[in-house]
Amino acid sequence: MFERKSRKFRLRLALAVLALALLFPTGLFQVPPSWTAPAYAGLFNSDLETLENVLDLVADKYVYPPNFKRMFTGAIAGMIEFIDPDNKKFKSTPEGAVLDGKTDAPLYQLDFNRSRNMRIFNRVYYALYDSFEDKTDKWELEKAGINGMIDALDPYSQFLDKKAFEKSMSDTEGKYGGLGMVITMRDYNLTVVKTMKNSPARRAGILPDDQIVKIDGKSAKGLQLVELADRLRGYPNTQVRVSLFRPKDKAEISLELTREIISVETVTAKILEKQTGYVRVSSFSKNTDQQLSKELERFQKTGVQSIIIDLRHNPGGLLEQSVKVAGHFLEKNQLVVYTQGREKEDQEQFHARNKKSYPTLPVAVLINHYSASASEIVAGSLKDSGNALILGENSYGKGSVQTIFRINDGAGLRLTTSKYFTPSGIDITKNGIVPHIRILSEQLAPEDKDKPKDTTRETPIDSETVLKRSEMEQYLKEKGYKKDDEIDPLIQFASLVLREGPPGNKKQTVKKAREIAANIHY
Prior knowledge:
There is one protein chain. This protein is α+β, with helices and mostly antiparallel strands. It folds into four domains: 1-29; 67-152, no CATH class; 175-263, Roll (Pdz3 Domain), CATH 2.30.42; 267-335 and 353-396 and 424-518, Alpha-Beta Complex (2-enoyl-CoA Hydratase, Chain A, domain 1). Helices cover 34% and strands 23% of the residues. Strand 14, helix 9 and strand 15 form a beta-alpha-beta unit. Helix 3 (68-83) runs parallel beside helix 4 (114-131) and helix 3 (68-83) packs across helix 5. The radius of gyration is 29 Å and the shape is globular. Residues 16-44 and 444-462 have low confidence and may be disordered.
């Protein structure tokens, strides 16, 4: 009888100790901080649901094995910077330590364990929200954490809230609500380059060289191009008032325009002298290949003998569109590009599948430091195949592929899921696509916020011929070419080289171009 009661007592004592251990995992006599066990968790609690969805995608789809220490360090730093820049509550260190904002005493140390780091993140998240509830809401705080986490991955992955996700989709679809203007920064003025056919801007009489002064009464001075685009775009059938300065008339014009769905013209084309077709591809959206196909058919009917493809300032776009564009100038089934994901078996090859192509047509491709991503796929594939002469500057060097995922509440995630390689296996991230003839500009452009940081990459000398821009311009002048506002010297030089190279022989065209460049010395 006594032994039975003793066993029951020992069992109850063991259960009690287990319960205490579950309640106080850090130790019975170690008093946890008051903010380590927030009473927010519940059956229907959706706090941090989006962040967890982002974490799942990164863990499963990111091109490299995720570094959870770096990611959570970035997430906590992002929240603190957003809500507590003076570090009153917490401080974060690059090493993953979380410090008390008042005493600098270490509170937490992140490691490479996802689950443990998530628990620490929860505690910091709720402590910040409790302390600064009057300054923010939970979603804004969570979003700051997500942005900090994604920023820790690479420069191209990006969290997209609902508004940014919708804009991203409209951009890649090739349609958006806007006015139909192409705008650039010229002498620190936001200047109209051209207006699109049948667009609100063209119907209103907006002209090239008009400068945008105000939008809805607010000054446009100091705005970057992206900020300007955000202000001009909007839902179809909504109004926007634009004030312009027209330099040739020295007059300011104010117009009220109605936004419309604009089909983006990513391809413009013209026929130069001597049966040379010129194609400018500004980006790779859903309609790019369709637009290019029409221009190539027109070229064929008019007897064009060579083509210049201008990819300068083209930031890229859809991978599938770049494959189709390159396929016009390759043999059917020829490899255009291949991508490599995290695992060895995560390789995908993309081949030319065009029903009609022009593989024997002499082609020159123009690139510069701003030619990136899908532009580099086209230039790289045509260079590797020997089917084109590449002229200009080293391209940007963006050798990664981003996939856009839709997540909850209309948000999305643009995530780097693989790297791409040219058909010969070249990873362009280090040096970009190296042109056959590299044109060096002796003039340094003014500092530009959007300019790539590294435009002086080291390049193997034997892979290129270097030609100064001033030398090229002098050579063109001696050949009878005159300055043209629409046809710049590099286009003229490409046209000349294509015309002087042997027809239909790509390798000989490249050889001839190098000979011309090598013999230009002043």
